[in-house]
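Hey,
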Amino acid sequence: MATNLRAPEVAGPLGTLALSQVKPHSSTASLRAIKWHQDLRRLGIVLPFAVVHDFGMVLAAGRQQLELGPRVDWTQHDRGLAAECAGYYAVLAEAHESEAARRAPQLSMSDDLVVVVLARVLGDVARQLRLRPAFEPLLPLDGSLFERLRPDLLLQLYRATDRRFEREALQQIAQGRLLILTLTDSLDLDTLQLFGMVGLSEGGALAQVDLLSSLEAPEANDVVNFSLEILPAVLETKARPAASTIAAFGYSGLGRRGSIDNMVLTELAWDDLELTRRIIDNEVLYYAREQQHEEEGREHLLLVDASASMRGERATFARAMSLATAKKLLLEGEQVTFRFFDSRLYEPHAAHGQDLPTAHILSFRGERGRNPARVFSELIGVLGLQRHVSPPVVHLFTHAALYIPRELVQQARTLAQLVAVFMLPSGGELNLEYLDLLNAHWVVDHSTLSHKGERAEAARNILGEVAPTFEPKSEREARAPA
C-alpha cells in the first residue's frame, strides 16, 4: 500500500526536504535519516527532518554517495527563504570538507553512532530553538517514499503547514556556524574507529547516552588510543572453523522435527483432524539428515576493577586489555560478558555476535569504594546459579591490592577457572595469599605502565597467552625487558 503523503505526520517532515541541500545518489539511503530523526527526538533533540537528513548524510556517507545542492530553487518563490537556505548551505559545505566527512566511508558508522554524532554537533542548536514543529512526525520505512519527491511536490508539502520552526532552525545554524564546525572538527575519530573495530552490542536510547558520555569523557580517549595500539594483533586471530551440521547427501533416519518437504509420506494418510493434532503434539515423523553436535563456546566473565585505586594508567590498561581480550575470545568462538566492580558487582553486559558493549566499557564510572570480599561473595552466588557444560572462565583486571579471603577464592575456584591481570603501583609488590589458587596470572609493574612502547609490548604478550581455557596453573610476568 502506498504511503499517504498528504497525512500531516508524513507531509510535515517530508515537506522540510524542500529546504534540503543534500541529494544522495540512492533514494533509499535517506531511509536511515528516519531512524536518526526519531532517536534524536527521544534524546530531547528536536530538529527539522531535513537538517538531520543533511548533516547525517554529510557526516556518515562517503563523498561519492551524495552531492550538495538545493532540491528546490527558492529564488523563484521566496527570496528571503532563499537567503536563509544559502546560509545553511554554506555551513553544510564546510562540514562536508571536514576530516570526519572525509573518513566517513572507513568509519562505517552504525545508526546509533550517527545519532550520537548529530547530537554532539547539533545539540546546542536544538536547545536554542524557541519554537516547536507544527506536527508530530511519523514517517514509515517505505523504500519508495523518497523516489516520488519531485520539486513541485516538495513545494506543496512544504506549504501545507506552518514552517516557522524550520526557518528558525536554518537561521540558528547559520548563526552558529563557528560552533557547529568547531564541534565537527573536534569529533574523536579514533573513538569512532574503535567502535567500528569492536562493534556495539547494545543499541537504543541508553546505549546512545553511554556513547555520548564516551565521546565527551577525556579519560576515555586514553583507553581508545591504547586499544587501537594493541587490537591489530588481536584481529589477526583466526576464527575457529565450525563443522558442517548437515550431511551433503541422503537421510540418516527419522525425527520429530523437519520441513514439510521431509515429511514421511504415510503421515498424509491420517485424516485432517488427527494430522493437525499430531503436528501440534510434535508426533509427525520426518526424514532426518545426519547432524553433528557443535559445542557452544565456553562462557568468559570479564571483571574489570572500577574502584578509586584504578584511576589513570591502571584504568587505561585494564579497560583496553579487557576489550582486546574479549575481542580475541569472540574471534575464537567463545561467549563473553563484562561486569565492573568496586564495592559491589555491577550488572552484566554481554557481547552479541562479534560486537562488544564498547560504549559501556569506555564510559562506566564506579563511585562505591572497594570491598573485594563482598564482590567475590556476589560472584560465587552468580556462578552457583548458572549451569554450564564446561566451567566458565573468570578474567580479573585489577589492582595488585585486591585482598580477597582465601576461602572465597577457593569456593570460586570450584565453580570456575580464575585468571587475573594485576597492575602494580609505584614501588609495589604482588603479595596475595590466594595466587596459588589461580589458573594463571600476569603482573604489570608501574614502570611498564609508564612507558608506551613497553606497555603495548606487555599487553601483546599477555594477549598471546590468553586462551579459551586454562587447565594448568601458571604464573606469567608481563614486565619490561631488561
